[in-house]
Structures are given as structure tokens and as C-alpha cells.
Amino acid sequence: MALIYAEIELINGEDIVLAWRFIIGEEKIKKIKVEMLVDTGSVYMCINETIQSQLQLPAIEKRKGQLANGSIVDYDIVGPIEVKFKNRRCSVDAMVLPGDNEPLLGAIPLEDMDVLINPYKRELIVNPDHPYFAQIKLK
């Protein structure tokens, strides 16, 4: 299967809360649109240090991640990040990859937003069974 990319809007979740509380104006909310690799083999969302810096996301904790070659590496976890795709949104934490590594949209945000890969069109789509709202399985 070919690689699938999607334009995703990432927003600093703490800024959203500050704007709701009228501590900052909506124009001060840090956000960025990025082309992310839709990676169903990755559980978490992964951003890079450049995105982390632009959104000014503080590290919450460190976690270990296993690379494809089997090696174990420590990564910073940042968040909350509001993730938007078309009429869908979710809030997640993300692992921070070094430098300008390619950001990955993993299984957790994909499931939470109820989006699917259309392999024929090679694109990310909202679930056609629920086109107007996200519906998740609770069992």
C-alpha cells in the first residue's frame, strides 16, 4: 500500500483553555497545519521538535519507544494537543521525535476522530457511516 498523508491542524490545548477563560485572545492560540503520515502501525501521535517549538508545548514526561530496528529510545511526551481533520477533532498527547523527523498520525487519534483510510483514493476520510459526527466503540 502507498503512503497516505493528510493535512492536520495541531493546536496548543493549553492555549484553548486560556482563551476560554478570557486570559488570552483567540488570536494568541498557537496552531499549525502540517502534512502528517497516516500511520496505523503507530499507536501514538508523533510530532517533531520543530512542531513542539512552534506550538510551545512543554514536556509532561518521558517514555520509552521501540524503533523498527528493535532499539529502545527515550522520548519526551507533550500535550495536550488539539488535533483537527475536516469536521473531526480530538485531544491527545504526543511523542516528540528529534529534529525535523516526519510527524505521524497514529491509531489513537485516528480512532478517536472516527476517520478511515480510503486505499483506492489513497487519502484519509471521515467515516462514511458517520459523516456528520465521530462515533466511537465503547465495548
What would your notes on this structure say?
With 139 residues, the chain is an alpha+beta fold. It has a single domain, classed as Cathepsin D, subunit A, domain 1 (Beta Barrel), CATH 2.40.70. Helix content is 16%, strand content 45%. The protein has 3 helices and 9 strands; from the N terminus they run βαββαββββαββ. Strands 1, 2, 3, 4, 5, 6 and 7 form a 7-stranded mixed sheet that branches. It has a two-stranded antiparallel ribbon with strand order 8-9. It is globular, with a radius of gyration of 15 Å. The two termini are 30 Å apart. The model has no long low-confidence stretch (mean pLDDT 95).
Compile the SSE list and pairings.
Blueprint: E1 5-12, H1 13-20, E2 31-38, E3 45-48, H2 49-55, E4 59-66, E5 72-85, E6 88-97, E7 104-105, H3 107-113, E8 115-118, E9 123-126
